[in-house]
Write a structure and sequence with these properties.
mainly alpha; Cyclin A, domain 1; 12 helices; TFIIB_CS; Cyclin-like_sf; transcription regulation
Length: 305
């Protein structure tokens, strides 16, 4: 029986809720006190660790499986510390033996060209995700997209780096943590056109359900970059909400709309933020901001009228 989730959800005598008592290993009714189950087996560890270092020293299992690793984290890892289980230093003969074992273990982890391809791609995905400040969920999604692209044979004639960058771009949009194509290009090792072509191919062939990016998803990052007040942030959010779902947003760059809304809200609230400051943070030209911010202000004034 799992101590966290008892097998019975209600008391058969009074119908009240039952709870598990992990200290006693019992499941009891909250109303009448009837003991429904007892002597539950605790499947957790029998030891306690208070720091990550203590956990690493005591734990007898490896890390969780992850799709961001070419072998999903199921292969054996040999530590590079030349010490035995008691912490004593190994002899010279044993050190040489362990060095050879590490070499062969590393070679066996990538048995064929497919695994070498995945290893290189996932290293690239993790590097770009770290540079862009993307969470683990985006890395997992990007790894799944790359695996599917490899299984479908979409890498023929395309570079590993290009498809990996396209996977990161697509995964960020799917997780609603969008990054612009220019931002991905700055951390990728291929040019913008290759990433765009790979993205169109991967998205079309795999049938990825990717909706247009929401301009409001860019606002927190842009607002933090220019260090504006909360009033400006809220006003920019309201401006974008007022045009959401209208024909005005069709065909327009979501990041450009977010930057323009931020500048328009600064003008409406009287806070001094220059177009160039927003342009540097959003990686959007000042012309794009000037083109849209007046329209957003006029739209807001029309709604007030």
């Amino acid at each position: 029986m799992n101590l966290a989730t008892p097998t019975q959800q209600s008391c058969p005598h009074c119908g009240a809720t039952v709870v598990a008592d992990p200290r006693r290993g019992e499941t009891v009714c909250t109303e009448c006190g009837t003991v429904l189950e007892e002597e539950a087996v605790d499947h957790g560890p029998e030891w306690t660790a208070y720091t990550s270092r203590e956990y690493a020293e005591i734990a007898r299992t490896g890390g969780p499986t992850s799709l961001t690793m070419h072998d999903k984290g199921l292969s054996t890892f040999i530590s590079d510390q030349d010490q035995d289980a008691s912490g004593r230093r190994l002899s010279a003969r044993k050190r040489n033996q362990m060095r050879r074992l590490r070499t062969w273990n590393e070679r066996c982890r990538t048995r064929d060209a497919t695994e070498r391809n995945l290893k290189q791609a996932f290293t690239e995905i993790n590097r770009m995700a770290s540079a862009l400040g993307l969470p683990q969920s985006v890395r997992e999604t990007a790894s799944v997209i790359y695996r599917r692209a490899l299984d479908e044979g979409l890498l023929v004639g395309r570079s590993i780096e290009g498809v990996a960058a396209a996977g990161v771009y697509a995964a960020a949009r799917q997780e609603n943590i969008p990054r612009t194509l220019d931002e991905v290009t700055t951390v990728a090792r291929v040019d913008r056109n290759r990433i765009a072509r790979a993205y169109r191919t991967v998205g079309g062939e795999l049938g990825l359900a990717i909706e247009p990016a929401d301009p409001t998803a860019f606002l927190p990052r842009f607002a933090s970059g220019v260090d504006c007040s909360e009033a400006v942030h809220r006003q920019a959010h309201d401006l974008l909400d007022s045009v959401a779902g209208t024909t005005y947003t069709s065909g327009k760059n979501p990041a450009g709309l977010a930057a323009a809304a931020l500048y328009a809200s600064a003008c409406l609230t009287g806070e001094r933020i220059t177009q160039q400051e927003i342009s540097n943070v959003a990686d959007i030209t000042s012309m794009t901001i000037r083109t849209h911010y007046r329209d957003l202000i006029e739209h807001a004034q029309c709604e007030e009228a």
